[in-house]
Amino acid sequence: MRPVRVVVGRLLRFDLRRYLIGALLWLPVDLVLLGSGWLLKELFDHISGGRAASLDHALWLCAAFVGAELVRGVMTVVAWSYGVYWWNAAATLLRANVLRSLLTARGPAAARLPHSSGESLARLRDDVSDLVQLADESVPLVNSALFSLGALVVMASIDPVITVVLVLPIAAVAVLSRMTHRLVHRLHLRARELGAAVTAYLGDLFGGVLAIKTAGAEDAALDRLRGRNRARREAAVKNRVAADLLGTATGATVEISIGLMLLLAAGSMRSGEFTVGDLALFTSYIGWLTALPRTIGGILSRLPQAAVATERLTRLMAAHEDAAALSRDSGVWYHREPPPAAVPRPRGDDPLETVEVRGLTALHGGGRGVREVDLTLRRGSFTVVTGAVGSGKTTLVRALLGLIPAQAGTISWNGRPIEDPGAFLVPDRAAYASQVPRLFSASLRENLLLGRPGDDRLDRALELAVLDDDLAAVPEGLDTVVGPRGVRLSGGQAQRATAARALVRDPELLVVDDLSSALDVETERLLWERIAGAARDGRGPGTLLVVSHRRAALEQADQVVVLDRGRVAGYGPLGELLESCPELRRLWSEEGVAEAEEHVDALVRDR
Ligand SMILES: Nc1ncnc2c1ncn2[C@@H]1O[C@H](COP(=O)(O)OP(=O)(O)OP(=O)(O)O)[C@@H](O)[C@H]1O
């Protein structure tokens, strides 16, 4: 439970002033209750003739009671509205810390994310809410404890015996909550898990609408959704029934208490020791006295939920970050402007001379990947990684860039080992254009710059990525909204946009993962000619690491790395390898056939 204490403690402190103001606003709400009970007692004593009756006095008491209740109503609205602000700020803090760690902290973020984005979102929504809710319970806990103390003192001063007897059923509520909290927790957790599973599946469905339609799998997909929803509904009903049963037991306690009080008070009332006003006061306090055991029961049942939430959220963050980082006061910018973003590293600071990879082993869950790869990238070199499908090309470049974890090996920059490649090999030291393009629903300009200032680098990047002609064809040029909610670019355009996004960062090392899947031979040839030409003239990234099996790329290369089932099968200049490496010869001849076929197809199309 220590991590939960750390998170809740920090949540309470991060905006202490607002938290205290919120708590103080609730205080009168509970204290007015004490006063209302006393006013009721006075009123009923007057009406029942327990005191010398005076209509004026009774009316004043009525007015005071109504006034007190009005004040309580207004204070409830004010305190609640203010509390919402704190609640949201606390939730934002947790979410911002998780996102910050996912986006910036050391270590590959992909390894920390659950399999579906829907599940990640469900965690950011539900787990965060569980933690903030627990912290928020501290206010009713203190207030109901203060009210209970005050009420018990007042009641005991009137009739200590009845007070003690009344407390017994209320104590029973606390015991009941304690006894059932494991069950309630288990049911809650199950409902949460199944809810997250439905959210995750919906996310998959939305992402895969086209695949489902083209496979004619609509019914099967809906059946599966219904199945998951059924399980979720059953869990939700059980969860609700358990919570409501507990609530009903609490309500019944109040009625039992009132019954007990009537039985016990009957004799004293006849003798006049216990007045109608006392009865009114006791009745008005009893209902509110159950708030304390209910709040304690609620906190006890939330504690295990909060432990699960803390663990799940911490797992989304980098390995070295813990509950303290989850709730670190990194600032929530509601009313102020956030501080300016960190200024990119100035150029010329330790420029790339060599990047050396030694004994790099990066394996996926099934044991596939790359083993013991050695490779040296010199300033100004053009290196092509090639190999058959599944030979480990993507794994190699991603492990080099620290985007997936490596089990062994070192990567050095100018002879010095890089401790955390994921944090070090970033723009403008290195930029990566991945094989699968990812465009956001924003203008093409925003997609390429992603927060960088736009300058002449953008035009140059568009030209090097052979996107300049395509731009003329899209309706609003760089201002055209692309991505899932905009104009759909073709596969080749999207891949070149990804390449342009990497180029605009003006990196010293440009890493490009297999563009050939969506580019025709001629476009790819033009692209490598432009990029290699720019590297020679100093107008583009000096050092290139490219995954490709196309002749267009291989012909530009100073050195080629041939991978075969995760191991280096050949490493050197193209000419030498074509003589010494059978695997490259095989790939080269296959590629020649493919290019010839593509050429013939183009001729037929043009005719
Ligand atoms: N996330 C993963 N989990 C498990 N296995 C993986 C994962 N990613 C890749 N692999 C496996 O690792 C091996 C190398 O994959 P990789 O994507 O690096 O090959 P590649 O040479 O880039 O293939 P392609 O030419 O198809 O892009 C393959 O056998 C692949 O199935």
Commentary on this structure:
This protein has 607 residues and is an alpha/beta fold. It has 2 domains: 2-326, ABC transporter transmembrane region fold; 354-606, P-loop containing nucleotide triphosphate hydrolases (Rossmann fold, 3-Layer(aba) Sandwich), CATH 3.40.50. The protein has helices at residues 2-14, 16-47, 55-104, 117-136, 138-158, 160-207, 209-214, 218-270, 276-289, 291-316, 323-326, 393-400, 421-424, 444-449, 456-464, 468-473, 491-503, 521-537, 551-554, 574-580, 582-606, and strands at 354-363, 369-378, 382-387, 408-413, 416-417, 430-433, 442-443, 481-482, 509-512, 543-547, 559-564, 567-572. The strands form 3 sheets. The protein has a 6-stranded mixed β-sheet, sandwiched between helices. A 4-stranded antiparallel β-sheet has the order 2-1-4-5, with helices on one face. It has a two-stranded antiparallel ribbon with strand order 7-8. A hairpin with a 5-residue loop joins strand 1 and strand 2. Helix 2 runs antiparallel to helix 9. The radius of gyration is 35 Å and the shape is elongated. The chain starts with a helix and ends with a helix. The site of adenosine-5'-triphosphate has 15 residues, from helix 12. This is ATP-binding cassette subfamily B protein. GO terms for molecular function: ABC-type transporter activity; ATP binding; ATP hydrolysis activity. Residues 20-305 form the ABC transmembrane type-1 domain.
